[in-house]
Amino acid sequence: MKRTHPGLLRNILATNVRRFRMARGLSQQDFALEIEMDRTYYGGVERGERNVSVDNIERIANGLGISPDLLFREAD
Amino acid sequence: MKRTHPGLLRNILATNVRRFRMARGLSQQDFALEIEMDRTYYGGVERGERNVSVDNIERIANGLGISPDLLFREAD
DNA sequence: TTGTGACTTACAGTCCGTC
DNA sequence: CGACGGACTGTAAGTCACA
């Protein structure tokens, strides 16, 4: 599912999620497993292809051990 | 649709959205109209009944004229 | 002015893979 | 390890009539 353009917010989310996950030194699959999310779906999130819902944003933020609002801050 | 649910992030979002909208002195219907969203759907968001996705969060934040991450900050 | 139940359709989200 | 595809299921998205 190649859902590129629409919003930029999901791209911000995507880069942030990826950055925080890598900072924790985890692979996509390991992290996805940890938060009980499908690995292919989670990969799509990091690619900005998925229009993630709040409940899943919460799961991801919890898994990363950070406050959810950090995932929506513009890259610096 | 009574989706009185699990996640609390959804409720944080709900209260924040409502607070910012009221701060702008707008009714749900007027605001919903402004961002081209169905009034009953938007109402459900403010009630924390809807598991909103990123694209819609973006639309709401844009309509409120604020940075999306403000919608995810814990109430003080 | 907002809430609610009922409803259909689009896509979120899962699971099997390959490269 | 991560990108990506096909086929599926569940639920968000979106609308309405009425309270």
From TrEMBL, chains A, B:
<keyword id="KW-0804">Transcription</keyword>
<dbReference type="InterPro" id="IPR001387">
    <property type="entry name" value="Cro/C1-type_HTH"/>
</dbReference>
<feature type="domain" description="HTH cro/C1-type">
    <location>
        <begin position="17"/>
        <end position="71"/>
    </location>
</feature>
<dbReference type="GO" id="GO:0005829">
    <property type="term" value="C:cytosol"/>
</dbReference>
<keyword id="KW-0238">DNA-binding</keyword>
<dbReference type="InterPro" id="IPR050807">
    <property type="entry name" value="TransReg_Diox_bact_type"/>
</dbReference>
<keyword id="KW-0805">Transcription regulation</keyword>
<dbReference type="Pfam" id="PF01381">
    <property type="entry name" value="HTH_3"/>
</dbReference>
<dbReference type="InterPro" id="IPR010982">
    <property type="entry name" value="Lambda_DNA-bd_dom_sf"/>
</dbReference>
<dbReference type="GO" id="GO:0003700">
    <property type="term" value="F:DNA-binding transcription factor activity"/>
</dbReference>
<dbReference type="GO" id="GO:0003677">
    <property type="term" value="F:DNA binding"/>
</dbReference>
<protein>
    <submittedName>
        <fullName>Helix-turn-helix transcriptional regulator</fullName>
    </submittedName>
</protein>
